[in-house]
Amino acid sequence: MGTLPVNSRKKVTINTLQALYRAGEPISMITAHDFPSGHVADAAGMDIVLVGDSLAMVSLGMDDTSELVLDEMILHCRSVARAAKTAFTVGDLPMGSYEIAPEQALESSIRLVKEGRVQAVKFEGGREMAPAVARITAAGIPVLGHIGLTPQRQNSLGGFRVQGKTTAGAKKVLDDALALQDAGCFAIVLEAVPAQVATIVTQRLSIPTIGIGAGNGCSGQVLVQIDMTGNVPPGRFLPKFVKRYGNVWEESMKALRAYKHEVKTRAYPAPEHTYPMSPDELEDFQHLVDVQFRR
User: Fold this and answer.
1) How far is CA 242 from each of CA 102, 192, 204, 228, 229, rounded to the nearest angstrom?
2) Hey, is 154 helix, strand or coil?
3) Contact status, residue 20 vs residue 218, Cβ threshold 8 Å
4) Residue 213's closest CA among 193, 189, 197?
5) Which of 114, 138, 144, 259 reaches 20 to 30 Å from 129, CA-CA?
């Protein structure tokens, strides 16, 4: 699996994304958390592959994103980057790696790019994070903003709640977006914001917005890959905005159960799955065994 097939698609860059935005073509973005998920996302032609901090739950089994640390994120970024050779790759800065000061945010971003091998970083926050955005972009690292519902701050938001539902809330979303744009973000994720608000915000910006639970008036969309492919057990909660495009869990269960059955019944491996030995060599080997173990 370490050797990838040749992909004829040209590498997606910041210029590519800007061209899509100017042409009015929606930007496709999906998360990935390891080599296989990065591989399929790249092969599917995604414009952006995000190594999101959602991997804390979907890959590492943590309770929420706040448990994730920078070293873990770097490891997963590096894994995805080995697979996503043509998509534009973005890595999330985990909670605690950027909030203290712009210098801390820059240091973490440099590590994510140098060691994680991604092309850009993403982190949560509005106007209060503008100085960090400016510091990082001044160093030549592209930044993807993230406002609206910011999962790392769920405790201060009272849980995973839709943002911007009031006039004041919607104005805050717009003000945050404008501040991040002025600070140098190349695009902004709008999460769990009323569709009408997201559309208005998008119209007032000169950079793309990437929606997740924010309607189709955004400049692009992002979903968590494991959710949209249906690679989750039955009954697991999924946010309202998630559309399942497949049922990987069920297909995987069918394959694993079939494999277990064939192992138990010795139907697998069949002769076509084994390596042959010449009759003469087999006869000689059997003779050696018989002599060695003769009592």
Assistant:
1) 34, 11, 26, 6, 10
2) helix
3) no
4) 193
5) 114
Instruction: Give the Cα separation of 162 and 181 in Å (integer).
Output: 22
14 pLDDT band (50/70/90 cuts)?
very high
Q: Say yes or no to pLDDT of 50 above 60.
A: yes
Separation of alpha carbons 66 and 174, rounded Å = 26
At 203, list the tokens.
């119209």
Please give the Cα distance from 201 to 19 (Å, whole number).
Answer: 20
Mean pLDDT, rounded, of the chain = 94
pLDDT per residue over 56-68, tens digit each?
988 998 988 889 9
pLDDT, tens digit, 9 for 90 and up, residues 267-288 = 999 999 999 999 999 999 999 9
191 noted as active-site residue? yes
**HSE-up of residue 211 (Cα within 13 Å, Cβ side):** 23
Residue 151 confidence class, pLDDT cut points 50, 70, 90 = confident
Dist. CA 126–CA 195, nearest whole Å? 19
Question: Per-residue pLDDT for 7 more than 70?
Answer: no
Q: Report the DSSP beta bridge partners of residue 50.
A: 31, 90
Annotated active-site residue in 25, 99, 124, 191 = 191
CA-to-CA dists, residue 4 to 7, 30, 148, 242, angstroms: 8, 20, 37, 30
pTM, to two decimals: 0.92
User: Read out DSSP for 217-275?
Assistant: TSSEEEE-HHHHTT-S-TT----TT------HHHHHHHHHHHHHHHHHTT-SS-GGGS-
